[in-house]
Amino acid sequence: MFRFAVCAVLVLAVLLPGAAPASALEAMEKEGHWGYSVNEAVGAPAREDGSFAGAGSRLANVEAGVPCLEHVMLRWLPRDCVFTGPGASAPVQPHPTAVSYVMVGRSPDGDVRFSGLAPGAEFRAGTFVVPGEGKQPFTMSSLLGAFMRAFEWADVVNTSWGSVTSPGAYEYYSDVMDALCAAYPQSLFVVAAGNTNSPRWEGSRGKVSQIASGFNNVSVGALGHAPAFDRLTENSARLPLEVVLPDGRVAGRRAGVDLCAPGEFMRCAACPEGPHAEHDRFLTATGTSVAAPVVAGCAALLHARARELGQPAEVHDARVMKALLLAGTRVLPGWSNGADAAGVTRRGLDDAFGAGALDAGASLRMLEEGCWRSLRVGEAPCTVDLGVHEAGSELTVALCWFVPTRLPLLDGVASAADLPGSLPSRPELVCGPLPHATLELRCEGRRVGLCDAELSPTQFLRLRLPRTGRCSLVVVRRADVPRGGEVGASKELAGSPLLCGLAWKVTPPELADGERQDEASAEEPR
Question: Any signal peptide, and if so, which residues (predicted)?
Answer without folding.
Answer: 1-22
